[in-house]
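Pilot study result, target chain (214 residues):
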Amino acid sequence: NALTEALIGEIRVSLDHAEADGAVVVLAGRPGRFSGGFDLPTLTAFTPASADLLKAGFDLSYRLLSFPRPVVIACTGHAIAMGSFLVLSADHRIGISDGGHKIGATEVAIGMAMPWAAVEILRQRLTRAAFDRTALLAEVLTPDAAQEAGFFDEIVPAEQLHDRAREVATRLATLDAKAHHVTKQRARTPMLDTLAAAIQRDDDEFRAAIAAPG
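Predicted structure:
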């Protein structure tokens, strides 16, 4: 489940349909892996397509965080780097308790500075100690530790994940849609404004670095 522009585009189309229908969203990955993050050959090619991919990924996070109806993540396994940022972009996040899956951001470990947008997404959901360990030290967590850190609201056995996600989505569908949307805007507008500025800063800096001679 590497995040390519094509896959991100498919998710955007699905979100368009859900928004038009006034539907609650459940986003899941394939068994064993929610997402390992961006497609690295594209991202590390250091071309305009790399910048396009980076911006598309964080624009998707912004859309999930600001989506007018509730968003549920069913994290089916490993969630690394951009995969973990998408987990943190949902309203209710469910992981699986078994399988030894890894959750975290590995950018610093592989020689990449953490994007400004990633820092803001981590900051808004993780505990302070977990934020520092994740962002600065590239600590990768077990599901239990990830729940304690703030990546997940709950963890369940793998065979219960999809049923639990549907159960949560069914309950959230009973919320008053307008009240949910307005309250989400009031609660998240400062964070979303900061995130939007961070996404633009990442895009500007990355494109400038690509265009620089040498």
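One observation from the pilot: The longest strand covers residues 92-96. A full batch analysis is planned for the follow-on phase.
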